[in-house]
Input
Amino acid sequence: MAKHRKSAYELSQSQVSTPTKVVSLFWRLAKKRRNNLGTVLDLGAGDGRFARKANFRQYVGVEIDRSKSRDIVLPENARLINNCAFKHRAKDYDGCIGNPPYVRHHDIESPWKETTVSRLERDLGIAMNKHCNLYVYFFCLGLAKTHAKGLVALVIPYEWVSRPSAACLREYIRKQRWDVLVYRFQQPIFKGVLTTASVSIVDKNSRNGRWRYFDITPDFRVKKRIGVSDSEGGVLEYSDRGPVWALRGLSPGSQRIFTLTEGERLHFGLGKRDVMPCVTTLKNVPRSLKMLTKASFKKHYVDAGNRCWLIKSLSKTRSASLDAYLCSVPESARDNYTCREQTPWFNYAPHPVPQMLFGSGFTKFGPKVLTNSVGAVAVGSVWGIHSQMPIPQRRLQRHLLKIDFEKRVVAHARTLKKIEVKQLNTVLKKFAKRERLHGHK
Output
């Protein structure tokens, strides 16, 4: 029998409760725009903690998980409804508030996704990106549920101000010329959650079209930011491929299955013909290293016990040892989206070997960049840089290492920054133009 997959709402039941200090700060920020809200709707209300320490006439919270609202005590002017937020029919609220659940778009089930997207598109008159995460759906629902002069204030990931998947939402807000205030937390506010959080407020009563950005310090003070990023040049733009382009690291299904350490390769009796060299991270290599050679690959990956071998499971002439290894993988270990979409489950789509390797995640200034003389496949968070023509790799490497990417991207977490593939494409296009490289992908 096939294993049951959790729906978006089952996943949303794992929503992390908002710390009390954050709730208090949230209402302090909201009060700057509305001293007194009349009717308030809380989508994904949890235990109704946003109903406390607030100034409103009536609070309605909607929460699908009954266990969160069991035995809670609410103020007299507040009530909580156990239901799906997207089935709640009432509208024209003065405010929509709360901390909606964060669920990645991969985990939002069909046909719920298509039905919900169609409804939101109809209500708002927009075309949504089906690759946006669940909190964006809640954001759109909040805009639809508030009246023409209402206020939407949510605790959501800061990434919505720059990610392409939320571009339709940003464009819709800009067309309405509503005022937007985004308060970015400088430190994680949810235990075990790395994503940078924000309090984001849309004031539909103000039509100046102003977007303002602030930082919330660890001691909950508010100070102004210069913009979305820490650079006056703003966040790096997103571009399609040019003559030199970036390709996201291969996602074969699960790195624990498809990529092996040297010890694991030997343990399962796999020969070198069963695997190919791969790189899943650049964290372990020194920043002074500029070229991944056979010697440096052996030192920093093979001998260091890092995952460095990608199994050739898609080969039509697999060895008996490799077949035995695939048969030993339990079904539970390969119960993920990629493996379920492949036939057979281990038949991943191969990626070309990149000319250069680029670590998409970093903590300060910018990522590490290596020329790839060992012919390793880029996997996971390691991007590949490709071209169908010879490129001046050393000049490109020096160029990339001089860029202060830290100021041009939106922080993923307190210290972790990430570059998107299309942002790297913007940099590569400009380099190719400067070098007058031409060609076709």
Observations:
- The two ends are 44 Å apart (CA to CA).
